[in-house]
Amino acid sequence: MTQTLSDHFKPKPILIAERFRFYQLNQSPGETISDYILALKRLASSCEFGTFLDDALRDKFVCGLAGEVYNRRLLSEKDLTFKKACDIALALELAHKDTKELGAQSTIKDTSVHKVQNDYGAKEKYKGRGSFQCNTQKRAQQQPSHKYKSSCYRCGGSNHYPTECRHRNEKCHNCGKIGHLQRACKSQRTQRSAKAQYVSDDTSETQGAVNDELFELFTIYSAQDRADGIYIDLQLNDKLVSMQLDTGASLSLIPEYIYNDKLKDCCLHPTSIRLVSYTGDKIPVLGELKVPVAYEGQQWSLPLVVVEGDKPPLLWRNWLQKISLNWKEIFSLRYVSPVSVTSLSDVLEKHRELFGDGYGKITDFKAKVRVQEGTHPIFRKPRPVPYALKDAVEKELDRLERSSIISQVGRSDWAAPIVVVPKKDKTVRLCGDYKVTVNKCILSEEYPLPNVADLFTTLAGGKVFSKIDLSFAYQQLELDAESKQYLTINTHKGLFQYHRLAYGISTAPAIFQHTIDQILQGLQNVACFMDDILVSALSSEEHLIVVEKVLSRLKQHGVKVKKSKCEFLCNSVEYLGFKIDEKGLHPTEDKVEAIMKAPAPTNVSELRSFLGLLNYYGKFVPNLSTLLHPLHRLLQANVKWQWSPQCAQAFDACKQQLLSSKWLAHYDPKKPLRLACDASPCGVGAVISHVLPTGEEHPIAFASRTLTASEKNYAQIEKEALSIVFGVKKFHKYLYGRKFHLLTDHKPLLAILGPKSAIPTLAALRMQRWALTLLAYDYDIEYRRSSDHANADALSRLPCDSTSTGGEEETVFQVSHLDELPVCAKDIATETRRNPLFSKVLDLTLSGWPSHITDEHLKPFYVRKDQLSTDQGCILWGSRVIIPPKYRERLLSELIIRMKALARGYLWWPGLDQDIQDLVSKCTPCELGRNQPPSAPLYPWSWATTPWERIHIDYAEIDKQHFLLIVDTHSKWVEIFPTHLTNAEKTINVLRHLWASYGFPKELVSDNGPPFTSREFEEFLRKNGVRHVLSPPYHPATNGQAERVVQIFKKAWERLRAQSVAPHMRLARFLLTYHNTPHTVTERTPAELFLKRQPRIRLTLLKPDTSAVVVKHQEQQKRAHDTPSRKLRSFEVGQKVIVRNSRYPKCAWTPGVVLFKLGPLTYQVQVGERSVKVHVDHLLPSNIQDRTAAMDSIIADDFAPNVCDDGNASVTKPPVPVDTGTVSSPERRYSLRQRKTPNRLDL
């Protein structure tokens, strides 16, 4: 019936017609992007696109937009999705509106309008489809109608007549007239809507109520509003809460973090209210509560909705109907300057606590690290820490723990090893190597970092600028409880869990950027890029007001600022490679400084590198061959090198061509980035470029510098790594927070600095430090041949002169400890140069190793070439100095204790481990001090097939009381005997009494205690045929059966003592429990295997009793048998009765006298001369005269012999004299039996 009615009143729409309407829908003139998106989603809900839904929405959205700007922008995107297309279109629409308003310099004072409309028709028409009708009149006119072709002037709907409209008595919130709704009002008001949310009640859909309402809530923003809106301070549950005023909404709400912080005492109840964003996404609602509210002496108990997330608390219309706000004061404050300052020093002094030392703690926000579903935890063991750094590492762990950044945990499913980097001040920096753990399975955060367009919109028109730098950026943001497990680090001191967002997590930039943007939300002329906050204003006075707001907002949320890196009241500031001042955006000079200051070549090699750069970007340089003609002549073999004025002129002309604006690209956050780095013996160079859709590289900026004296001594692999770190740091503003491709012509760096490679523990410390620096970036590293790497190669060979020290020169602390040894680092450096093999290794390490090696002596060094480095003339493998043969024997003598562990922290040479083993094998003290060998494989005893076949015995002592324990290996049955002596005699006596009950075993297993190894004990066992097995001395595991019982018995004894059980009851209670508990090996109770039954214990009472069932059935049988006519007959002693005689049918009853009662149903009766046992069913009372004695004698002989209760035939109690009458006995037809008393065995 339900299906029939549904098909009749709600027929399934025609699929082809629904899709036709979907593909015919285009954006109408004046219709907003958000309204068009909603209309598309509504129509698509009935088109049954299935998995093609996203593609269909994307295609129709792009094709249906009205505006060539949108189409051109969306069609240029690669891998475009519907969500991405919506974001781009909405951003373009908002930027277009902002640009128009900023250009017009609107003078509107207050345009914050809140609009509430009731859209009954949309809810009723599309109820159950999960989509909603757009609230614009133009969209309503486009929808098909089957009842009414024109839109209703009362509500804007199209499925009814105006006379039937349910809103004909509603009051318009726009004009105040009755008869129509605000959305259909023809009195137009200028509004500017930016965001929309829907609030509905779930019960409306489930119950199908006619009067259900769908509330559309519009929040209007304008450039002239107060940046932080209007906030009202209310007392909620006696706690101050600042709520944003929103007169257009119908519900008041607070976010979850405020509820947990201030309203946790109020009971949260489930609610059917549902919040839905304008894009259709659900906003989770946690519940509803009644909260005490106080404002200026007024008190109420009002409903409040709690939602998830970090949304601002909103004071909405349902509260305004109760609360009388001081509107005069609220609106008067709107035009009063929020701060009054006289100078920058006043502002900084007011917020001086922001610039204090220590870690800040951001309130109201927590970082959440999300991993892919179904991810298995990754646990990495800790990496060894050099002895020279162990103290520093432990101090750093203690410092972080005292600062509540980390805390030690007992266990964790996730764990990442740590990377230790020494600093100049003798301290270290610790970081988790999350590349090998959580970064492999982390879900990316889809939150964009600020780009140039955002910067221009926010800061354009400013004349005064400030930059505020946040201290300990990530570590000011707390982690939520679930995310802490992913950031666990594994150290030599155990596991430590981070409580703050840690350095090295790939999603940390997006998480932190999102948090700071929310903290600074609503502040105008303020932009933020990670830990740099940029502020602009037209004048210094206005600028200080904005700075005051920013610092107040940071103070409110507990953010700390590093004052030494802040810049205030500047005329210009650099951001994302651009210089921003009052005139706008300008490219910075350092982008082309590497080419402008490139020195002229001094030899053919340098000239070839420069020409390679020109050829690399030859397509951007017109008439290249003509310009290069003088330079090409210098490359000819028969031409002497001479740098002529023509060559200098050609060189300068080529540089000017390279610096032309047509060649250099502007940074575009939407285009892929590529960073090429290279190093030469004299310098390093880097080029950052955009990759065009055609695959061509368009350079953005260049950088180069010369190497310092110490850097020129680096190994070639270290120089190449230095060039990468130089390029990344130089172009940090371009690269940070973005995915980019890193190019190098040194292939070993792919394994050492790869984004998925673990940080090498044996690499030089500077390599570890550089790898740690790259953890903050999201990149892929690629190898490119040197011939294709001409752009970076030329910059490295023609570097700019630089007075900077370049890299951070830090001491390798492990080497300095060698000064304490008899052999110092200077001696090793000298011998390294003198030794032919080591001299060659040193040269190859400095200049670079070939691709193949044939010398067998060089192969041990060749396989480690990527980890070799030099320092002060010594060759290092990681942090270990490679020792020449001359000093090896002397150094081995210094490492006689803990040789391998100590050697691995300081030195190495080929075959070091074998040399140490040879030395130790010939060392007598070492031989005598060797450790215990590993335990042998487990060899269990064979299981005895019958009880009491093999027993294990041992003594236990508790509180100076000895106990002899015997265990049966078949059933695990235990016997325990308390004794005061443990000698052989006492042991034999206990076993003798025990074996009298259970018999002799075949085997007895014991340890080598004196009672068991005595001659008397051995003789006792031999005479009884028992085989004695002794366990090896000092190896109790052989007698593990008895040892385990001893352990269990001692623990049980202590447990019973704690339960206040009397000492004399503990043994019995333990044995009862042990015998009736299933054993883990046999999975049966010892009593069941040993006694072949289950003994009755107190717990047996819990099981149903069989006897009760039997009694029950017996009673049922008795009730069925004992009818009312059947009554129990009883007889008195001496009463005359007649006894049933089954042998004589003709004379069935024989007279007798009752002697006594045997039981409830049996009597002893005197029949003639015999006393017989008769059942009551064979007895009847009698009053007749007795028959003759002869007859009685004959009949009595026919009865069964007299049987007593014990079953033996014997004479019972003497018969009671009874008078009998004379009765004639019939003639016997057989002889009398001769009865003899049986001769019974007397037991």
UniProtKB/TrEMBL annotation:
Xref: SMART domains: ZnF_C2HC
InterPro entries: DNA/RNA_pol_sf, Integrase_cat-core, Integrase_H2C2, Peptidase_aspartic_dom_sf, Retrovirus_Pol_polyprotein, Rev_trsase/Diguanyl_cyclase, RNaseH-like_sf, RNaseH_sf
Domain of life: Eukaryota
Gene Ontology BP annotations: DNA integration; proteolysis
UniProt-annotated stretches for the region Disordered: 1206-1226
Domain Integrase catalytic: 943-1094
Start and end residues of each Reverse transcriptase domain: 402-580
Coiled coil: none
Keywords: Aspartyl protease, DNA-binding, Hydrolase, Metal-binding, Protease, Zinc, Zinc-finger
EC class: hydrolase
EC number of the protein: 3.1.26.4
Residue ranges occupied by any CCHC-type domain in the UniProt entry: 152-166, 171-187
GO MF, one example: aspartic-type endopeptidase activity
Family membership: Belongs to the beta type-B retroviral polymerase family. HERV class-II K(HML-2) pol subfamily.
Protein name as catalogued: Gypsy retrotransposon integrase-like protein 1
Organism: Labeo rohita (Indian major carp)
